[in-house]
Design goal:
The protein has three helices and 13 strands, in the order βαβββββαβαββββββ. With 214 residues, it is mainly beta.
Length: 214
């Protein structure tokens, strides 16, 4: 399946909010958060059941609770039009937003060093990672260095980098950015897209990469 934006394929069944996070992603900001957790089962991972507040304990509780929301993983990547260098990050906050116009979203931490580069390029490729792309996700999550060295990729028709072997990709422009605590919610407009291959998705659950077991 492939097509230009506006066709039915734009409606990826994305899920979720940012937050399962690894390497300092979830974050509560400063607000108090009530986390009503199944009384006394210890779901909060030691952070205290029933109520999570700002600070490390609250953050731990949020991570523990939100981490139980299983997500897929995408690579968000761009190519600097001036230098040709690629920049990118792994994200599990990817979500479908609108079919008409075709919009998707993801959340990026203010601490991301890659986001300003992606933002400056204006165009980005989103690759929906397959179960065999755990290594690629890990590479893209490392801060600094050439994350793309040895990572097979291709240019989308509009020139955005998409990872070879991904289940699907979307070529997008940035439609809007909405500040949200320690993250920014990025809304991206889908220009082109393709479901490149069949296969199992890469899953992220409770801070670990997982596979679907049937
Ligand atoms: C499975 C997984 C999901 C992630 N999801 C997000 C996310 O939704 N938003 C985000 O800002 N960072 C997320 N990260 C972290 C980024 O991939 C990356 O580590 C972070 O942006 C720091 O790298 P940078 O400085 O190059 O941006 C995720 C990492 C992994 C491994």
């Amino acid at each position: 399946m492939s097509g230009e934006a506006g066709v039915s394929g734009a409606g990826v069944s994305g899920a979720g909010v940012s937050g399962a996070g690894v390497s300092g992603e979830a974050g509560v900001g400063g607000a108090d958060v009530s986390a009503v957790v199944n009384g006394g089962t210890g779901v909060s991972g030691g952070a205290g059941v029933g109520r999570a507040t700002a600070g490390p304990a609250g953050e731990r509780c949020l991570r523990s609770v939100l981490g139980r929301f299983a997500t897929g993983v995408v690579a968000v990547a761009t190519r600097d039009p001036g230098t040709g260098e690629r920049a990118g990050l792994a994200a599990n906050s990817f979500c479908s937003v609108s079919l008409d116009p075709p919009l998707v979203s993801f959340c990026v931490a203010h601490t991301s060093s890659s986001w300003p580069r992606i933002r400056a390029a204006g165009q980005l490729g989103i690759s929906i990672l397959g179960a065999g792309q755990r290594e690629a996700a890990t590479r893209l999550a490392v801060r600094g260095g050439d994350k793309f060295a040895g990572l097979p990729w291709s240019a989308s028709p509009g020139g955005a980098p998409v990872l070879d072997g991904a289940l699907a990709w979307l070529e997008c422009t940035i439609e809007a950015e909405h500040p949200a605590g320690d993250h920014v919610i990025v809304v991206a407009r889908v220009l082109r897209l393709d479901a490149s291959r069949e296969g199992e998705p890469l899953l992220f659950f409770r801070g670990e990469f997982e596979r679907i077991s049937r």
